[in-house]
Design a protein that fits this description.
The chain is mainly beta. The longest helix has 23 residues.
């Protein structure tokens, strides 16, 4: 019987999407409808794949998003196609993904900790929370967090909770103030052109039947609903959205640039090499009850446990490993001379002067 690791190595390589987020000064009226002048020149993302990537079938409904910004806000719009448009939950901060929903995840400083989660259903019922760190790293959700100044709206092309061929899609608009987002940014300010956030989106879609002219979740033999589908912008290679190291790169620009004009920084590639060693350390802990102080051992573990060939080795980056039985820090040089990168046993990454 194979070992079930707490923190599986993703079954995909490090290839996050990149998006050029353009500055937008057009007048904005919040109504959930993306078919208006404000969004006209803002490009959609690619259609969302399954959270596990190409190893799973393509989603049966198309989902795309678009983003822009101004001096005070980040604007997010999403179009969720399909005729299964329903929602039941009406209480703010309830567990929205028990309905079909749209979810937003934002890590402003790309350290995989202290990041925002925002969920909404087709009734515009919302759930906003702050994650101290990923659940895999014993992170706690701060459900009492309220996104000050956040606004959202839903537009339905069809009829909510009524099956029928006239149902085509539902769309959302979310306005997020930088005054709130910057509380988790590295320099506690809005972004500057050329800087980036790490972002992901998720669409939860339950399989349903039509019973007595209403949508009902399809049940298993044990009477429980079938597992939900998870369609995301940036796949994580595991059925877990809380792998911030694989989220997309949202580059802010005030110029007429495209995603191809924004290469992923070299430090982020080096963070990924550190992250692979982190996965191996966590697996070694599962197997042995403590961390190892041997980089060679970590390489051997990684080669053995990774389901993705691209993740079975690490580049030679002159790593330094400091370990106790229950904690570790792995360091390598940063891309800029005089800097170092570290990853810690709780998953956090850090860039600092060496």
């Amino acid at each position: 019987m194979s070992t079930q690791y707490r923190i599986p190595v993703p079954a995909i390589p490090f290839q996050p999407p990149v998006y050029a987020c353009h500055y937008n000064t057009k007048p904005f009226a919040l109504d959930g409808n993306l078919d208006k002048e404000f969004w006209k020149d803002i490009p959609f993302t690619d259609a969302f794949p399954d959270i596990e990537g190409s190893i799973r079938p393509a989603p049966r409904f198309r989902t795309r998003a678009k983003m822009c910004w101004d001096a005070e806000h980040l604007y997010i719009g999403a179009l969720l196609e399909g005729d299964e448009i329903w929602a039941t939950l009406t209480e703010h901060d309830c567990v929205i993904f028990h309905d079909n929903d749209f979810e937003i995840f934002i890590d402003p400083d790309s350290d995989t900790q202290a990041y925002f989660e925002y969920e909404m259903n087709a009734l515009n019922t919302t759930w906003d929370l702050l994650l101290t760190k990923a659940y895999r790293d014993n992170g706690k959700p701060v459900n009492g967090f309220e996104f000050a100044g956040m606004r959202s709206a839903v537009h339905i092309d069809g009829t909510l909770n009524q099956p029928g061929s006239q149902n085509r899609s539902w769309s959302v608009e979310v306005v997020l103030p930088f005054a709130a987002l910057q509380e988790c940014a590295s320099q506690s300010r809005p972004p500057l052109p050329g800087e980036y956030y790490r972002v992901n989106f998720s669409r939860v879609q339950w399989k349903v039947d039509i019973v007595e002219k209403a949508f009902r979740k399809r049940l298993q033999e044990n009477g429980q609903p079938l597992p939900e589908d998870n369609w995301v912008w940036a796949p994580t290679g595991v059925i877990n959205i809380h792998y911030p190291e694989l989220w997309a790169f949202l580059f802010f620009t005030r110029e007429d640039k495209k995603a191809a004009d924004f290469p992923i920084p070299e430090d982020e590639y080096r963070k990924w090499e550190l992250r692979k060693l982190y996965y191996a350390q966590q697996a070694y802990l599962d197997e042995n009850g403590q961390y190892t102080d041997s980089l060679d051992t970590l390489r051997e573990v990684l080669a053995r446990i990774s389901p993705c060939e691209a993740n079975r080795t690490v580049k030679d980056l002159s790593y330094q490993l400091a370990t106790t039985p229950h904690s570790f820090e792995i360091t390598c040089p940063g891309a800029e001379e005089g800097t170092s990168l570290s990853i810690f046993s709780d998953g956090r990454t850090s860039l600092y002067p060496s």
